[in-house]
Amino acid sequence: MKTIVSVFLYIVMCGVQIYSVSAQELKLNAKAAVIMDAESGKVLYGKSKDQKMPNASTTKILTCLYILEHCDIDQMAKVSKNASMQPKVRLGVREGESYKVKDLLYGLMLESYNDCAVVLAEYAAGSVEKFEKRVNQMAAKLGASNTHFVTPNGLDGTDKDGRHETTAQDLAKIMARCIKNQQFLEITQAKQHTFTDGSGKRTFTCNNHNALLSTMQGAISGKTGYTSKAGYCYVGAIKQKNMTMTVSVLASGWPPHKTYKWNDVRKLVQYVTDNYEKREIIADTNNVKEINVNNGLKQKVPLRTGNPKATFLIKKTDQIKIESILPSSMNAPVKKGQKVGEIRYLVNGKSQKNIPIYANQDVKQKDYWYYFEKIIQRFTLTL
Fold first, then answer.
1. How many whole angstroms separate alpha carbon 136 and alpha carbon 133?
2. Which CATH architecture has domain 31-278?
3. Does this model's pTM top 0.90?
């Protein structure tokens, strides 16, 4: 029977005054929004987070990530007639021209050029349709199960499986994966990029239009978007107070309210920094030293634990409790490395992380030969 044999730490945040508004009172212009811990995927605030909606050019973060992870960005991509006919906003590529893939990615992410997206999709998969099939598979692997993309640039579209759409939560998940790619960060953080076509006859300069990079502390990446159906959209990543967050807002106003999305992002980030913190907890394992062994050649076995350090992103008012779960004794034989219990980290009574406790030594069982030897020893002593 397992019992709780010791309680190591109990933290109650006393005397903490929080003046920020609650999640229910947070007023946003966006019809859907999420701010998420990029490391754990924990949603820190959500509004209609699972509602499927068009998302415009925020789509391009997944197009970019796919190209970076599956293609040689130093190769040249040729422009098709289809790519050259894409609507604004566009670079103005011409059929038959060629461009370095890396340069097209800058055009995609800094200026949001629709024709760059199609050139990249056709380069990677041969056609937009084949590319989107691969991209949707990638989204599913990232846990974005409510995402269905039809176009590589985010322009509204439909196919046999439905319309082009995602959710605020899915978009934040995708961005969390994007910021793990150093090349993605280099591209989306660049202020400007100048390049030429393959012939060297045409020169282009792209400028970064992500206003948060220069106006918000800790902004590390992002992508804007707009169509008449999607409204103003944004997905990005921010690092503040030792927390890395991904944020997405969908349908955050329509013209002329272009700045609504920036206001929404600031409110979301402020909410998290006001109400959450990263707390590092180290369990005191001094009481987890040994355990009794039944019918063993040794009466006790020494114990060891995994790393007792744990970091949690929690609300400032959350209560943390740490307890060790061990049986009062265990039966021989015992193998070194055998799991015998665990240390549990509970937040508001719910288990968040478990650290295993292992036997640190072999203990053999008392068998027939053990008792036979004892009998011989006693017999010898009586002679």
1. 5
2. 3-Layer(aba) Sandwich (3.40)
3. no
